[in-house]
Structures are given as C-alpha cells and as structure tokens.
Amino acid sequence: MAAIAVLTLLMVPAAPASADPGRPSTHGPSSALPPVNGQWDKPGPFQVATKGEADTTLYYPRDIATSEYRHPVIIWGNGTFAFPLIYDGLLRHWASHGFVVAAANTPFSNTGLEMRAGIDLLAKANAQSGSPFHGRIDLGHIGAAGHSQGGAGAINAAMDPRVTTTVPIQPGPLALPSSVRSPALYLAGQKDMVVFPALVQLLYDRTTQVPAVYAELAGAGHLTAIGNAGGFRGLTTAWLRFHLLGDEQARGVFFGSACGICSGSTWPNVKRNAKALQIPGSTSQRATG
Question: Which residues form the signal peptide (predicted)?
C-alpha cells in the first residue's frame, strides 16, 4: 500500500513568494565532522536516534547532547501519501553522517511550508537550555531535500534564505525553480514513468540563477528513492557533505573537468549549468590544469 501511495503525484500548492536570484554559492564547513573517505553510500560514524516533535520527525546523532560538533540540518519532504517511515533508511543514513534531519510528518509537502517548519523547530531547540539540541545545531548550513511531491516542496522551500542547498529527487512539476537561492542537485530516474526525466530536466533548465546539476540514475524508477534510496543514497550524501560540511573529497564528484559522475554508465545523462561549471574541481584537478 505504501509503495502504491507514493506513485500518486502532487496536488495543490500555494504559490511561493519571489526570491532573490542573486545569492552567491557558499560552501565550507562550520563544523569539522569526521571524514568518511569517500564512502558516501556507506553508514557514517554516528549512531542514530529518532523522535517525534510536533509535526516533524527528527533523525539525529544519538550522542548529540554531548557531541563536540555542531550538526548541519536537512529538511525533508515526502512524496504524496507518504510519510518519513517510507524513507527511513535514507533519513537514518544521512543522520549517521552527522546531519540532523527534520522530516515533515505530512503526505502533502508541496508548498515547502511544512518542511520549513522543521527549521523553526530546530532553531528553537538550539536556543533552549536543557534541550539535547542546545548549541548543537548548525543553522548556517541547511539543505532542503525531498522526493516526488516533496522534491517540488524542496524547490519551493528553497525560497527561505536559511536554505543553503537543495536536492529535489524526482520532483513533481508544481514548483518554482526561480525560488531556488542556492546550489541545487536535480535527480531523475531513467525509467521513471511517474515523473519523467524530461520534467526534471525542465526544472533544472529553469534554474539559471544559481549553480545547478542534473543527474539521471540508470535503470531507476519512481520508487527507487523509497527505503534507503538505492543509487540515489551515495550521491545525495556526497552533495550534502560538500555543501553543508565542506567535504572536499566530494567536490570532484560534481565539479571540475574530471567530474566523477560525468562519465560512466551509472549516471548516463549529467548536465551542469554555467554557474556550476565555474566551480573548480578538486585540488588535484586544479594542480594538473
């Protein structure tokens, strides 16, 4: 039943406000979390805990109350008729890498407002003495991610100036790419018969104001993103680690002349817009010209 439910696409969105398209790309760590040596598809170094808070499910490092780090945030939007439990493997995976994931407890996250509520929740907890999250949340590095309707929600949530990168996975069409204010990774499934790759490419094509990358996963259908997200898991983790943690090992996966996903059979269709092409590759790439 859950799998069937995810197939139904998004319904009525509220129209997001216009956004400043001139925000520059920023990346770099504010919290020196442990490296993972390029093993982005493998579990990270943190044990994971979950808890329900108001209209949000939180996934976070279990020892966050005593952590020596400040942990970046990912706000998450589900597909239509889906809830965080359907994406439990992926959300736990990100938390194991040190992120605090605030997943909206709604099957209708198209407006992005439900997702943005997670930022407000964590900002309050970060400032609240006695909260396990007190002083442990890095509110300067926040990613918006989601699947299907939630992917459109992630795009719409990116109008919030607190969002510093966006990862729409197979996003539905009711989204305003002009609202994206920070680097974006658009992901499509080669065999997705619900959200066709051409639709995702159209959203990517309309995102010219910030660095944007489009990548199409070979053989992936619309349900590939549920559970632990399969082939999407490692790439999304690399992108989030680079943009929210400044993980330099992940830079070369997306940027520079030797872009790691720009050749091979796993990602047969990759596009990078003019602003993304301006981002330099890894140090070794730059050293060799």
Answer: 1-19
Q: Confirm whether 14 is domain-assigned.
A: no
- 193: domain CATH number? 3.40.50.1820
DSSP annotation string for the chain: -HHHHHHS---PPPPPPP--TTPPP----SS-PPP-TT-TTS--SS-EEEEEETTEEEEEETTGGG-SS-EEEEEEEPPTT--GGGGHHHHHHHHHTT-EEEEES-S--TTSHHHHHHHHHHHHHHHSTT-TTTTTEEEEEEEEEEETHHHHHHHHHTTSTT--EEEEES--S---GGG--S-EEEEEETT-SSS-HHHHHHHHHT--SS-EEEEEETT--TTTTSTT-THHHHHHHHHHHHHHH--GGGHHHHSSTT-TTSSSSSS-EEEE-HHHHTS---HHHHHT-
Q: Is residue 9 part of a domain?
A: no
Count: domains in the chain: 1
pLDDT of residue 238: 98
The tens digit of pLDDT for each residue in 152-191 reads 999 999 999 999 999 999 999 999 999 999 999 999 999 9
Query: Structural domain of residue 206, as residue ranges?
Result: 44-287
